Amino acid sequence: MFEAYFLDSRLGRIFCTGARQSENRRKGRMLILAPFGEEMNKSRHVLSALVRQFDDAGFDVILPDLFGTGDSEGDFGDATIDVWRADIDSAIAHLQGDAPVMVVGMRAGALLAVDAAKRHAFDTLTLIHPVADGRQLVNQLLRLRLAGGLMGSKNSETAAELRQRLAAGEALEIAGYRISAALAAGLEALSLSATDARPARRVNWLELVAESGRPLMPVSERVIAGWREAGTDVNAETVVCDSFWATQEIAQCPRLVDRVAALMSN
Q: Domains of the chain, with CATH numbers?
């Protein structure tokens, strides 16, 4: 049964959507981790469709808005990776039963999912167009800040100057979000290619492409090769779909929802 509720966590209540099954119908436990910022807003309809698919398939599901994001309590500027880790741990503890936890992580949510795998034993990780490295993510945020500046201004900023300000403990306003120095540092410490990362028994890596036949990105191939070398079973695929988290208009991606649901039912 689909539900929405608030869950107590470390710094405040976090808003969750999900589904809960009767004991005789429950097939497993599922955690979904979203990206943040505008990517979260543009992705919510796709992730909500996944919740409903897993509900129909008999899974207990939880999709949390981490502290300071979405409809949860708190200010985004007060969020840190440690706070989000506590939120994720609270969400997992809320899932009923003792079946292995399966996780879907999208974009930056994939970084948090692999990070959580160091604290929890996950059966399956499904990563949707993951951000492979937290430093890459922070660089994207800084470019977004620079793109929003005044062209040709004598006071125009540079990426190096923005990094110096973060290093000095200053928070930056980027596209309506206050990115604290602590959050930026925490993000930069996350990486899918960390040498100690063997995230789950099985990983499904789904990358969205504009047309069939396109290969995975080179950085994805490197991460996947490292996981396979460490003994992780990795299934890597491409799905033809718009990059809905970055489009101007809300874009649907039923092919992706159906493929994730099919992989989880195997």
A: 2-133+196-265 (3.40.50.1820), 134-189 (no CATH)
